[in-house]
């Protein structure tokens, strides 16, 4: 299905712009007309991280006239393996500012708009309202559903992408012409089922593979060329080096874009809707949580307990809390590891940030380890408050 161009052409291109964009202008399907449309376009990138980095750089280079960047985070050393819009000297700076600098360096004709904030239900309409098209580079389900719902309610298209380890997906969601994200994924995955990139890792270059698909789709929509990914899901497997296109139909019973929608405004609390941790885990940690400092005090006082690290072996290789033994969360949840655990000692669980250990704690308590506790903030809290000489990751 081809669609009409999303934006009207700008009045003219300057001599400098004609020189700069000449390799676009000589493509018949783009031409001066298409380039003028890009010049007149206003595109918002949600996130200046893994996907936002290549997306912003190519949108800028392509000559998109106005580029918005919404991002609240600051640049961390562990971002630089994939977030190529930032550099070594940007560590500690707001990502939105660092990204804006790079965009200006790539193309001074781009008008960059910085939204140095987290997108939320209070500001999303006001921010989205300023743009023709949204590129979603977020990495968590709460924001993804917020972006989708706001885009559908405003009648705006957006280009979605997601990445994990060696796998990527991309699509264009535009309720007027096809399905929305909720048609494809009506429910967020259960808490703890889908690890984030921070927990599961991502091959850096995968960001470029998926980010470039997102920009390609953005350009096609803005200029009205080709067949956009509306109603199609692109699935990329870097290990197999395969791209597959899967048909996605609009769900007539979709709660948001279906025939009788039950969602007609933004959901009250997207974090709660997507549940960062399960109800069981939330209940398990009550009165069973210690801080990293308390763990250190317990160790210094020679308290008798077993410290269990529920992360994965690769993470244990990177950094570990002294005295910990590794039993990955999966072995605890499956029950496989329960026989290995002593009955006569208190068990102290920890992971990277405290989410996985909370899930494991719920399983342990259900199995009868009543006095088990977990460490709030996990390894990250240990490195921050007890031993900053250890690496964070
Ligand atoms: Zn829908």
UniProtKB/TrEMBL annotation:
This is Probable adenylyltransferase/sulfurtransferase MoeZ. CDD domains: RHOD, ThiF_MoeB_HesA_family. InterPro entries: Rhodanese-like_dom, Rhodanese-like_dom_sf, ThiF/MoeB/HesA, ThiF_NAD_FAD-bd, Ubiquitin-activating_enz. Pfam families: Rhodanese, ThiF. In the N-terminal section; belongs to the HesA/MoeB/ThiF family. It comes from the Bacteria. One of its GO terms (molecular function) is ubiquitin-like modifier activating enzyme activity. It is found in: Membrane. The lineage of its organism: Bacteria, Bacillati, Actinomycetota, Actinomycetes, Micromonosporales. One of its GO terms (cellular component) is cytosol. It comes from Catellatospora chokoriensis.
């Amino acid at each position: 299905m081809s669609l009409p161009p999303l934006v009207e052409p700008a009045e003219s291109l300057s001599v400098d712009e004609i020189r700069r964009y000449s390799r676009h202008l000589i493509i018949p399907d783009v031409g001066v007309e298409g380039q003028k449309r890009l010049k007149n376009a206003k595109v918002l990138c949600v996130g200046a991280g893994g996907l936002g980095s290549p997306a912003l750089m190519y949108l800028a280079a392509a000559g998109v006239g106005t580029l918005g960047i919404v991002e609240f985070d600051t640049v961390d050393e562990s971002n630089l393996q994939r977030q190529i819009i930032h550099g070594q000297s940007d560590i500690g700076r707001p990502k939105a500012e660092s990204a804006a600098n790079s965009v200006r360096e790539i193309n001074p004709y781009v008008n960059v708009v910085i939204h140095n904030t987290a997108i939320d239900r209070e500001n999303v309409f006001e921010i989205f309202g300023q743009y023709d098209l949204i590129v979603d580079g977020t990495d968590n389900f709460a924001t993804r559903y917020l972006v989708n719902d706001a885009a559908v309610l405003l009648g705006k298209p957006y280009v979605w992408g997601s990445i994990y380890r060696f796998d990527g997906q991309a699509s264009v969601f535009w309720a007027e012409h096809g399905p929305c994200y909720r048609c494809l994924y009506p429910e967020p995955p259960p808490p703890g089922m889908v690890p984030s990139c921070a927990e599961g890792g991502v091959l850096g270059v995968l960001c470029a593979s998926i980010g470039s698909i997102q920009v390609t789709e953005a350009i096609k929509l803005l200029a009205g060329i080709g067949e956009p990914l509306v109603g199609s899901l692109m699935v990329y497997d870097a290990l197999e080096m395969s791209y597959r296109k899967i048909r996605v139909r609009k769900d007539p019973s979709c709660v948001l874009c279906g025939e009788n929608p039950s969602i007609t405004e933004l959901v009250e609390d997207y974090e709660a809707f997507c549940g960062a941790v399960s109800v069981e885990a939330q209940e398990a940690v009550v009165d069973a949580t210690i801080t990293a400092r308390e763990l250190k005090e317990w160790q210094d006082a020679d308290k008798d307990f077993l410290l269990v690290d529920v992360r994965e072996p690769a993470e244990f290789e990177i950094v570990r809390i002294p005295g910990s033994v590794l039993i990955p969360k999966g072995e605890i949840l499956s029950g496989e590891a329960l026989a290995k655990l002593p009955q006569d000692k208190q068990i102290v669980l920890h992971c990277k940030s405290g989410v996985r250990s909370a899930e494991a704690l719920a399983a342990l308590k259900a199995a009868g380890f009543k006095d088990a506790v977990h460490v709030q903030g996990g390894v990250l809290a240990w490195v921050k408050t007890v031993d900053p000489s250890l690496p964070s990751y």
